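Hey,
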Amino acid sequence: MELRQLRYFIAIVDHGSLSRAAKVLHIVQPALTQQLQHLEEELGATLLHRSAQGMQATDAGKLFYEHAQAILKQVSDAKSAVTQSADKPSGTVALGIPQSVSGALAFPLLTAVRAAFPDIVFQLTEELTGNLTEQLKSGRLNLAILFDDGQLQNHFACTPLVEEEMMYITRADSQFACKRKSISLKKALQTPLILPSIQHGVRPGIEKVAREHGLEIEQVIDITSIAILKSALLADMGATILPAAPMLAEIERGELLAWPVSDVKLSRTVTLCASKNIPLTNAAMAVEKRVLDVTRQLCLQRVWPHTRNLMS
């Protein structure tokens, strides 16, 4: 198996066509077809099939695509580690960030990295926490922002960033709005709640605290997308329990209101993670430091609300 075969396969999947992939790769289509056949013979599996929509990956092809991307990413990182200067880092750095943190951290971080390191190709990926974990394990990501569930240290090198308070959030004029300055957990859980699905980093934490206090969520609407969750809140379908950061724009405009949960500690630890097994390039280490600097600044300036800085 050759690296070029991996690149060829990825190009076919990305472009959905042998002819388009051949054009992008600057090779003739028969040669591309031959390399694909050699790859499938070596693996003993069919990776692609023709459909009305073009060339599409089979189940085996989808799995191989993920591994191929990770392998090529690590090869690229290895080259960068040897050739780049510590004083002027360059190369590609991929950082994954959860949807519920993106609103607070993504743009300030992107701006800071581009200003400080113009030779770094900085790739920000917004995903669900579970997807980010798998991509970091496989090497497709250099770094990821994850939520510490007590198990992260078993798999990754971790740096806690902030502790983020969970808030009870409703539409400003909602029938579910709180009449006081805060709300009890029991009262909040009796409300129809719009929450991310169970595999999301927020939901297990809420359910764990509820169980510890002999409570359970009475009514829940599962919505994984932050954008759709906001729409459901604004339609007054229920309330949510989330950090304020992903709703900050709507809260500042007065469309949504947020209250603290008064009788229990309901929070999550936002953590910067890297692989224990794959070394960071100089560029990735430069971005890692910038994440810490930007996060610290956002907390000090209270731009990232309801957070406690965990960095020394």
